[in-house]
Amino acid sequence: DAEITQSPRHKIIETGRQVTLACHQTWNHNNMFWYRQDLGHGLRLIHYSYGVHDTNKGEVSDGYSVSRSNTEDLPLTLESAASSQTSVYFCASSEATGGWNTEAFFGQGTRLTVV
Amino acid sequence: GQSLEQPSEVTAVEGAIVQINCTYQTSGFYGLSWYQQHDGGAPTFLSYNALDGLEETGRFSSFLSRSDSYGYLLLQELQMKDSASYFCAAPDNYGQNFVFGPGTRLSVLP
Predict the structure, then answer these.
(1) Are A104 and B95 an interchain contact pair (Cβ–Cβ within 8 Å)?
(2) How does pLDDT run across B50-78, given as a tens digit for each residue?
(3) CB A72 within 8 A of CB A85
(4) With 70 as the cut, is the pLDDT of residue A98 above it?
(5) Are A57 and A8 spatial neighbours (Cβ–Cβ below 8 Å)?
(6) B20 Cβ partners below 8 Å, 6+ apart?
(7) Are the beta carbons of A101 and B91 separated by less than 8 Å?
(8) Which chain B residues have a beta carbon less than 8 Å from that of A107?
(9) How far is A17 from chain B (nearest CA, A)?
């Protein structure tokens, strides 16, 4: 069965360190997204990609970067981690049907703690 | 852009019916979706409405009124396992991105 997986599931890092969160999907979807989820804020879009070599900034992109070298993967990098980036991170993918997206498929999430 | 509003919490008892409302403001409209998320889990897709009216999937139904910029999720015959957070979502950016509401936490009591 097709799926979307994130790794690691949990990570603790020190302030100022760089960290990369992996996201891999086997749906062969063109669209991939990174969200962060914090209490009281729901799911907020960090970066998104509509295909290989395409990346775009979302609502809360400062301090984050992504790259898309193939269809399956969209790694999220925190260049210099800050305590404000302590959160749960979700990767998602989708495919537009009839011209737009109707359903997103989510990974299980990565709980990141910056100390 | 898009903004969506939902109540923060709803409580109901087992076997009852509960309605979770969502109002939205959009620059363009590409439908309204609903997701369920259990504590510690990932959001999972429940339903999608592109047109006005009711869509039924088992115990869950979703309704949309585009003229009122309003939708709701209806959960019938509530079970303890329905305790979760429920998010409405609307595609933005010409239908390619998903914008989520803040979520409604449903607690089902015995």
Answers:
(1) no
(2) 899 999 989 999 999 988 999 999 999 99
(3) no
(4) no
(5) no
(6) B6, B7, B10, B72, B73, B74, B75, B86, B88, B104, B106
(7) yes
(8) 42
(9) 26
